[in-house]
Structures are given as C-alpha cells and as structure tokens.
Amino acid sequence: MSSSSSAQYALERSIAISAVERACSLTDKVFRNLVTADTVTKKDKSPVTVGDYSAQAVVNAILGSHFPEDPIVGEEDSKDLQKPESEALRKQIFGLANEALKNSAQECPAVAEAESKPSTQALGDRELTEKELLAAIDRGSAEGGAEGRCWALDPIDGTKGFLRGGQYAVCLAFMVDGLVQVGVMGCPNLPHDASSAKPKEGEFGAGEKRSDLGTLFIAVRGQGAFQRPIQGGKEEKITMRQISSLSEASFCESVEAGHSSHGTNARIAELLGITAPSVRMDSQAKYASISRGDGDVYLRLPVGDGSYQEKIWDHASGSLLVEEAGGKVSDIRGKSLNFGVGRTLRENRGVVASRKEVHSKVIDAVRKALEEEGRGHL
Ligand SMILES: Nc1ncnc2c1ncn2[C@@H]1O[C@H](COP(=O)(O)O)[C@@H](OP(=O)(O)O)[C@H]1O
Ligand SMILES: [Mg+2]
Ligand SMILES: [Mg+2]
Ligand SMILES: [Mg+2]
C-alpha cells in the first residue's frame, strides 16, 4: 500500500468531514434550543440525550449510505429509545436527524462532491422512517477488533461540557486492522485561535453565537494534522508546540476529577518542574488543543482501583491528531493504545500524550507519582 499518497483514504476523509459537520450543526442547534438555565439547574440531561442519539443517527446513516459494509463502534444504542415512554423523545430525534440529513447536502461541498459519485446512494432525497432511524443508531453496535475496516464514533464527547456550555466534540475515526487511519473531530465551542478569549460557560439559550467559535480538526495517518473553521474555510496545518524544557509545559486535563486523578497530576507537574496551572476542559478537545500548541501534555490517570476500561471512541480520533502533529500517545506505562481489541482499550490504563521528545520523561514522572501513592501496580 502506498502510505503517503494524499489520495489514500481521501473518500473516507471527505465523508467523515461532512458527517461530523452535519452532526455539529445539529448538536449546536440542540444546545441553543434545548439547554436552558432551567434544564441546567434541574440537572435535566434530556438535551444531551436528544443530541447524542440524533447525532449518532446522522453520522451512521451517512456512513451506511457510503460504506454499507463497514462496521461502526458507536457509543449509543437505541434500547432505551425503543421503550413506549420514549415516544416524545423518538419524535424529537426523528425530526432533528431528518432535517440534518436533508439540509446540509447542498451546503457542504465535500459531501456534494462525494455524493455526486455514481457509486453512492444520495441521502436526503426522502425522510428516513422511524425504523430506519433506530437501525441507523444501532449500526453502531459493532464489536471492533483487529481485522478489516471499522469506524469509531462518539456523537457527543464531553456530555458534561455540552450541558455546561463548555467544550464538547463530535469524534469520528476510521480504522483499518485496529490502526486509526483517519480522525475527524468537530469542536463547536472551541475558538479558531486559542489566544482569543475563551467562551463564557453557562450562557444558555438563544442569541448570536460568536463567529470565531467552532473548529474542525482532521488527520490522516502519514498526511499531517489540520484545522479549519467548522463553518468552512481553508485548512491549516497544525503542530505541537516546540518546548526546550518540560518546565515550560502546561498540562491539559479533564474537568471531571472522576475521569482522571487531579491530585496525582499535580504531583507529576511538581516532579517535572511545571509551574503553569493545568488547563481543564471536557472532551477530546484536549487532544486537539495540544495538537495545535495550546497546551503540551494531556494526562488521563486512572482513578480508584484503575479498573475502568477507556472506550475506543473517547480516544481514536484525538490520538491520531496528536501523532500527526508530532506527538506520542500511550497509556500510563508507555504502552501504545491498542484500538484493535474491541470496544474498549482493555489492554491499556489511562493515557499520556505529549511531544515525542519528552514523552518518556513524562512516563517516568507518572510512574514515580503513582509509586509514591502506593498505586505503582496500575
Ligand atoms: N471513570 C471514568 N474514567 C475515565 N473516563 C470515564 C469514566 N467515566 C466516564 N468516562 C468517559 O469520559 C468521557 C469524557 O471525558 P472527559 O472527562 O475527558 O471529558 C465520557 O465520554 P462521554 O461524555 O462521551 O460520555 C466517558 O466515556
Ligand atoms: Mg466520550
Ligand atoms: Mg459521548
Ligand atoms: Mg457517555
């Protein structure tokens, strides 16, 4: 196989971009119409439920029409949605997903081009039935594995961030024989330029969205990592920041202490001489941020007894972005992430991502900090 030809996986790349774009405009709309100060106060998660299901339906329907044989490992399934009491929810998702499938075909040059190819079946000519919609969601139930083509989808990654008005991402990756080849990530609330002010969290409901928010990240193995405004525009190449010493680095970590141990991170920073405060954000936007140099090290340390198995859709697209931007991604022991063993990364514990040159130093500090806590066995 000629690995560096820019034509390699060009179709998968353009279909993935269009699917993620459509899903992002849908989730953005769901946020603006359904997340209100009231739903947030009541800790009502229904907006994210609507967004999750309809975004998965849209992406899977698009993948299904272009690559009908390809298995998809998606986070959601329609089991709860099929219950009689979910009828109103089903109707809402049905409307949103069909609208997204219909509207965007003309607006998105990548999909217009791909869909004009005779081999593909045009979407959006007619509405999907409710049955087809549920089937599209359940197309995501593949088991994954080390053989052949496979997609991994997180329709809304960072569900907590979505509800806060903070960072979340639509993440889609294409894998061959367990290796990620294409990663596309849409971050509707991430500024194009990291130096511009961060969006204020908790600004719910209607109102004009800032025009500098919404960034799309794209990576193909061997072809580099790129970003562009999600609304369209020129792709620019991104690379991780050059730092001469780890003491200049800053960490990027989860907002949720339950997803990554903040206390241990602080000790690792101390061991490495890092003084800059950690940047905390939800979702795989962390991988995207370090890929373009907003931060330098993404640490995700196991919490508790370390038995949690990371899900492949939480890391597939982000890890390729970092690798293509000059970084290295491994688990806390320095072992490569193995995306070919099923729906989870069961052979790995936690994640460490940084520039290649400093990666082993970070791994050493992680080991030392865990040993000090009596968790060296993790
Ligand atoms: N105990 C745990 N440890 C690590 N990750 C967890 C976890 N419980 C849930 N997660 C995952 O963490 C993801 C969010 O990561 P982050 O905290 O970096 O934003 C969630 O994705 P979803 O939001 O798609 O469900 C979920 O899959
Ligand atoms: Mg997720
Ligand atoms: Mg999710
Ligand atoms: Mg989830």
Give me some keywords for this one.
378 residues; alpha+beta; D-Maltodextrin-Binding Protein, domain 2; five-stranded mixed beta sheet; 37% helix; globular; binds magnesium ion; 3'(2'),5'-bisphosphate nucleotidase; magnesium; EC 3.1.3.7; 3'(2'),5'-bisphosphate nucleotidase activity; Inositol_monoP_metal-BS
Strand order of the largest sheet: 1-2-3-4-5-6-7
Order of helices and strands: HHHEHHHEHEEEEEEHEHEHEEH
Find the structural class using helix and strand composition: alpha+beta
| Unreliable parts | none
What's the CATH H-level homologous superfamily of the largest domain?
Answer: Fructose-1,6-Bisphosphatase, subunit A, domain 1
- Radius of gyration using CA atoms only: 20 Å
**Distance separating the two termini:** 38 Å
Helices and strands in order:
Layout: H1 10-34, H2 37-41, H3 46-66, E1 72-74, H4 87-107, H5 109-115, H6 130-138, E2 149-157, H7 159-164, E3 169-176, E4 179-191, E5 213-220, E6 224-229, E7 236-238, E8 251-253, H8 262-272, E9 279-280, H9 285-291, E10 297-300, H10 316-324, E11 327-330, E12 351-355, H11 356-372
Parallel strand pairs: 1-2, 8-9, 8-10
Antiparallel strand pairs: 2-3, 3-4, 4-5, 5-6, 6-7, 10-12, 11-12
Helix pairs in contact: 1-3, 1-4, 1-5, 3-4, 3-6, 8-11, 9-10
Bound molecules: adenosine-3'-5'-diphosphate and magnesium ion (3 copies).
Summarize it.
The chain is of the alpha+beta class and 378 residues long. It is built from eleven helices and twelve strands. A seven-stranded mixed sheet has the order 1-2-3-4-5-6-7, with helices on both faces. A five-stranded mixed sheet has the order 9-8-10-12-11, sandwiched between helices.
